């Protein structure tokens, strides 16, 4: 697999859709995640991220313009003990509730499929970060239609134990713009993790397509203490 520059990957794609990055800082001290949303419609662009406990949720920037909340209003990030859940939909709650009942990340997602938004059938992408007593591992998942056929759901889980400093993985919903939108293909992309939280956040935001980007969340978690620092950028502000 090719080791990719995250800034280049983002700037080269006008519409990756929603994306999750998980990795580890170059100094090895922090577990890293980023989640961004993009939009082409008025309804999709009419959103902001807001803090919700230890996580975040989406809400309408202008409630009067909210036409369909079903797939755009959800909690992308929730924290369950020493686990941080990051997803592109309400499956965050499915994972949280499943793991709270001692199910695994993968088992919790078996009850879910891709989004019912044909003809796109947007993949559900999810990540779980486990930071405990100086150890760190993470996993990522994608649930997608069978090459555009909604009669079958393809499920993929990728687990990363003891992540290497300065490295991470990037998964997103679409390969690029189109009609219908082409679903992500292959393994999560192997990317470099560089800079402190502000540099990392700024790099992602400035390389997302200016017309389509909506909101960005980033978090650095201290692997020794579990304490975290977060950033939110909303285009609507």
Description:
The protein is α+β, with helices and mostly antiparallel strands and 237 residues long. The protein has one domain (6-234): Glutamine Phosphoribosylpyrophosphate, subunit 1, domain 1, CATH 3.60.20. The protein has helices at residues 6-11, 42-45, 91-100, 105-109, 197-207, and strands at 19-24, 30-38, 47-52, 55-60, 77-80, 83-87, 124-132, 135-146, 149-161, 167-172, 189-192, 213-222, 228-234. Strands 11-10-1-2-12-13 form a six-stranded antiparallel beta sheet, with helices on one face.
Summed up:
With 237 residues, the chain is an alpha+beta fold.
Task: Please outline the helices and strands.
Layout: H1 6-11, E1 19-24, E2 30-38, H2 42-45, E3 47-52, E4 55-60, E5 77-80, E6 83-87, H3 91-100, H4 105-109, E7 124-132, E8 135-146, E9 149-161, E10 167-172, E11 189-192, H5 197-207, E12 213-222, E13 228-234
Antiparallel strand pairs: 1-2, 1-10, 2-12, 3-4, 5-6, 6-7, 7-8, 8-9, 10-11, 12-13
Q: In one word, what is the shape?
A: globular
Helices, by number, come to 5
Strand percentage lies at: 35-45%
The strand order across the widest sheet is 11-10-1-2-12-13
Helix-strand sequence: HEEHEEEEHHEEEEEHEE
Q: What is the number of E strands? A: 13
Q: What number of domains?
A: 1
* Low-pLDDT ranges: none
SSE-based structural type: alpha+beta
């Amino acid at each position: 697999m090719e080791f990719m520059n995250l800034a280049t990957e983002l700037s080269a794609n006008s519409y990756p859709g929603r994306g999750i990055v998980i990795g580890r800082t170059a100094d090895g001290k922090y577990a890293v995640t980023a989640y961004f949303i993009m939009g082409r419609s008025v309804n999709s662009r009419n959103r902001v991220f807001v803090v919700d406990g230890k996580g975040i949720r989406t809400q309408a920037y202008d409630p009067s313009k909210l036409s369909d909340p079903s797939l755009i209003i959800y909690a992308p990030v929730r924290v369950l003990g020493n686990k941080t859940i990051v997803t592109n939909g309400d499956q965050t709650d499915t994972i949280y509730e499943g793991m709270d009942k001692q199910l695994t990340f993968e088992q919790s997602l078996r009850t879910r499929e891709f989004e019912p938004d044909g003809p796109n059938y947007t993949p559900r992408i999810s990540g779980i970060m486990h930071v405990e007593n100086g150890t760190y591992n993470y996993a990522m998942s994608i649930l997608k239609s069978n090459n555009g056929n909604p009669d079958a759901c393809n499920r993929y889980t990728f687990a990363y134990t003891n992540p290497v400093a300065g490295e991470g993985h990037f998964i997103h919903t679409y390969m690029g713009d189109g009609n219908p939108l082409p679903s992500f293909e292959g393994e999560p992309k192997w990317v470099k993790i560089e800079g402190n939280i502000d540099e990392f956040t700024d790099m992602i935001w400035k390389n997302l397509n200016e017309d389509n980007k909506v909101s960005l969340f980033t978090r650095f978690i201290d692997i020794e203490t579990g304490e975290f620092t977060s950033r939110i950028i909303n285009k609507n502000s």
